[in-house]
């Protein structure tokens, strides 16, 4: 069993739509988490993880395996699909375990990209209006299933 069982159960309790949680110490997510950085809207795909907010949040630091960390992660995830965990790693969630794993891989990829963007001097972040337009576009983007788009990946932005 994971020392982070409280984190997993906290997300399940707070989010009835969630049936899968993944916690990992992936490289680039951990790098940004150790820098205690949120991931801003440097790329439109940040919306996949951030949900309706303008960042993928980095939860404040608390010792691993504690109720304080679990609460901080639940708050940082909010209505989105994941967060970074200060000086630790990342946690993601989804409608099932496959979706949660997809979001973990997607968040790692975004963290890698953002780390590279920071290395060359920083990002030109998209604003709320631009992100809202992307979220709307995602509703009809990609393969059509039963009259609606699937969006990126799992179609999380419907």
From TrEMBL:
GO terms for biological process: pentose catabolic process. It comes from the Eukaryota. Transmembrane segments: none annotated. SMART domains: Aldolase_II. Keywords: Lyase, Metal-binding. InterPro entries: Aldolase_class_II_sugar_metab, Aldolase_II/adducin_N, Aldolase_II/adducin_N_sf. One of its GO terms (cellular component) is cytosol. Signal peptide: none annotated. GO terms for molecular function: aldehyde-lyase activity; metal ion binding. Coiled coil: none annotated. Pfam families: Aldolase_II. This is Class II aldolase/adducin N-terminal domain-containing protein. It comes from Triparma retinervis.
């Amino acid at each position: 069993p994971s020392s982070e069982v409280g984190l997993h159960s906290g997300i399940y309790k707070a989010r009835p739509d969630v049936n899968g949680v993944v916690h990992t110490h992936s490289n680039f997510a951990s790098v940004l988490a150790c820098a205690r950085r949120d991931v801003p809207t440097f790329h439109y795909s940040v919306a996949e993880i951030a949900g309706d907010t303008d960042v993928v949040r980095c939860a404040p630091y608390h010792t691993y395996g504690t109720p304080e960390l679990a609460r901080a992660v639940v708050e940082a995830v909010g209505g989105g699909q994941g967060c970074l965990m200060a000086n630790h790693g990342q946690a993601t969630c989804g409608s099932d375990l496959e979706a949660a794993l997809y979001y973990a891989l997607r968040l790692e990829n975004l963290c890698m990209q953002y780390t590279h963007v920071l290395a060359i001097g920083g990002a030109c972040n998209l604003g709320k209006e631009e992100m809202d337009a992307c979220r709307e576009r995602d509703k009809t983007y990609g393969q059509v299933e039963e009259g609606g788009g699937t969006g990126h990946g799992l179609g999380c932005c419907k």
